[in-house]
Automatic annotation (TrEMBL):
This is AsnC family transcriptional regulator. Residues 4-65 form the HTH asnC-type domain. InterPro entries: ArsR-like_HTH, AsnC-type_HTH_dom, Dimeric_a/b-barrel, Tscrpt_reg_AsnC-like, Tscrpt_reg_AsnC/Lrp_C, Tscrpt_reg_HTH_AsnC-type_CS, WH-like_DNA-bd_sf, WH_DNA-bd_sf. It holds the Pfam family HTH_24. SMART domains: HTH_ASNC. CDD domains: HTH_ARSR. One of its GO terms (cellular component) is cytosol. GO terms for biological process: regulation of DNA-templated transcription; response to amino acid. GO terms for molecular function: sequence-specific DNA binding. Keywords: DNA-binding, Transcription, Transcription regulation.
Length: 162
């Protein structure tokens, strides 16, 4: 595990706030000159602390107005059931997150859709048609716990294939 000092943490915070920030701006923000700041950023990238840079795309701007969490319980608990499920989910662009969890369910999915009809079609025609899926339960996201309505901030939608 990489050792991070206070300056590394400030660099990470600055880049999380704005991944397009120039090295000069990051250096000014954290109190370093540009060359050592650049070296630290490169080290954080090389050590895998910084995994990459990406644009956050607004789901609402793309017409995705409904975000739901779907819990999934698999019919087959062995590796084959999990592999079959994960392979199928990878091909579903509506799925923005797929989390393996403990408890009475196996997976928790974050799904973005345009409307209720699209949600119905996704669940009944795509998700529940995966042979290893035994049961699903859907929860509509009404807000993010910080006073924001669903889809107004945060979240992620997949555009095309990575």
């Amino acid at each position: 595990m990489p050792r991070l000092d206070a300056i590394d943490l400030r660099i990470l915070a600055a880049l999380q706030a704005d991944g397009r920030m120039s090295t000069l701006d990051v250096a000014e923000r954290v109190g370093l000159s540009p060359t050592p700041c650049s070296r630290r950023i490169r080290r954080l990238e090389d050590e895998g602390v910084i995994e990459g840079y990406a644009a956050r795309v607004s789901p609402r701007a793309l017409g995705f107005s409904i975000c739901v969490m779907v819990s999934v319980r698999l019919a087959r608990q062995g590796p084959d059931g999990h592999d079959q499920f994960l392979s199928a989910v990878e091909r579903l662009p509506e799925v923005s997150e797929c989390l393996l969890v403990t408890g009475s369910i196996d997976y928790l999915l974050r799904i973005w859709v345009r409307d209720i009809e699209a949600l119905r079609a996704f669940i009944t025609e795509q998700l529940q048609s995966i042979p290893s899926v035994a049961e699903t339960s859907t929860m509509v996201i009404l807000g993010d716990g910080k006073g924001q309505a669903s889809g107004l901030r945060g979240g992620e939608v997949r555009i095309g294939r990575p």
